[in-house]
Structures are given as C-alpha cells and as structure tokens.
Amino acid sequence: MNEIQLGGMISTVVTPFDANDEVNYDLLRAEVAYLLTQGVTAICACGSTGEGQTLSIEESEEICRVVVEEVAGRVPVIGGVIQNSTAQAKRYSLALKRAGVDAIQVTPVHYVFSPSPEETATHYREIGEATDLPIILYNVVPWALVPVDTIELMRDVPQLVAVKQSGGDMHLLADLLHRVRDRYTILAALDDLHYPAFVMGAHGALAAIPTVTPGLSVELWDAVQTGDHARALELHERILTVWRAIDAPNLPATIKAALELQGRDGGLPRQPFAPASDEERARIRAALIDAKLIEAEPQLA
Q1: Interior CA angle at 47 toward 44 and 49, to 5°?
Q2: Enzyme catalytic residues
Q3: pLDDT tens digit string along 16-25?
C-alpha cells in the first residue's frame, strides 16, 4: 500500500449529467481543472456530492479514470464507494483501483439493518485486503454512524488510514480526535463547522462546501494553521452563509445551482432530482452575494 497524505482542504467534485441523464465528461474535466486552481489538497470523485449512490460500476470507474487523468498526479484522487454489501463494495473498489485512484472512501453498510462492530470491522478488513488501497471510512449515515469503539477495533487494518466524520455529529468528531487521532487522519465533513473542527485539531476536511467555496475554504484552513483566528472567523461566516442557502434535501441540485451562479457548469442533477427552482436559485444568489463570491446585479435607474 502506498503512503498518502490526506490533510488540508479536500474538495469533492460533482458529477455533471446531461439532459439524457448521462455523464458529461467535458464538464467534469472543467470542474476538476477549476478546483486544482483553488489550492485544494486532494479531490474526491463519486462521493455524496458526486451522487455516487446513483452511479453504476462502469460509470464510477470511468469518472475516476477521467479525474485521475485530469489531475495528472498533482494531488491525490479519492474514489467514493457507497454500497451495501462487502461483495459490492469490493467490486466497486477494485474498479476504482483500475481507474488509478490513490485512495477509496467507503461508507459503512447502512440499508435498514446494521452490522455488528465485528462485522463492520470485517467489512473494511476484506476491502483493504482485496484492494490494498488506503481507505477512508466515510461516517456519514446518521442512523448507521460507526462509533469510536468500533473504529478502534480496526486499528489492525493497515489500509484504513482515515475517518471522514459527517453525519452532523460534532460530539463524535470530538471523541475521534480525543481517542484515535494518533492512528487515523481525522477529516471533518461537518460543512458548517469546519472552523471549530480545525481548532479542535482535525487534520483537514473532505466535504461538499469546498466544492462550492474552494478558495474560501482553503483560506479558512490556512488561516487556522497560521493562528489568524479573526480572519478564520470571517471566512467561516461567509462560508456558513452559502452552506445555509444550499443545505437542502435536493443538495445535488442546489450545489449545481451555486456553481452555475458563479460561472461554472456542473450539469444537471441525476433524476429523479430536478434542477433548483427559481426560488432556490434566488436564495443561493443572495447568499453568494453576501459571501462576496459574486457581485450584485446593478439596479436600473
């Protein structure tokens, strides 16, 4: 297994779909190229922001292949695996390995039934043994959060190198940092709480908001690292304004609206989601103006 550095501000990338619900790879390349200009430390494809739960194994492999090609070794590429059995998770993980990713981000099994701590540990152990790729445990599903005790059971899985803590649980992030930061890289995915997460000692972030505000998010990380907390708080509040505007059940659609309003093209969300409504777009536009990411339209005399 190759060593990999996963700290700092890691951006996810959207999967642009066209009117036929197919992946638009030209738009995908353009988004990756843009994110690289913003100073992100890695890029994750096929995660939640990339609508990975909707992707076939063939689509996932090709998306990651394109991202790896576009990145060209400048930063690590992480491939997302959102599956509900060990067998399927291994198949997807091996496909992403063929595509050339540097690491994989794997959700726990989360459909209705919850495996035991020992079964969860075995799940990640088998994926690690099958792929020998660095694994990020993506702790995102609120009803299936993997507790710290279970994560400690996996200390002997060498491929498990990081935990991405989402699921809206700052308390679990605090426990992870307190108990296992010596063993794992702890990445914050609490989009509205990156500033306090960094102050608490999180090694970085891997989340949706750095896709929408990559420049501000990188600045926030850098400000905390240099101890400029006045600047960090200002950036946190600007980012929070945007997050509150896009945080919705149709997040893929609102994220893509926020990109388009900034002059980027993330394509359409995958069906059944429709593009953001006019009301949602107006709310997002106002937030982007408040965050100084776009300019207000001049008023007619």
Answers
A1: 95
A2: 138, 164
A3: 999 999 999 9
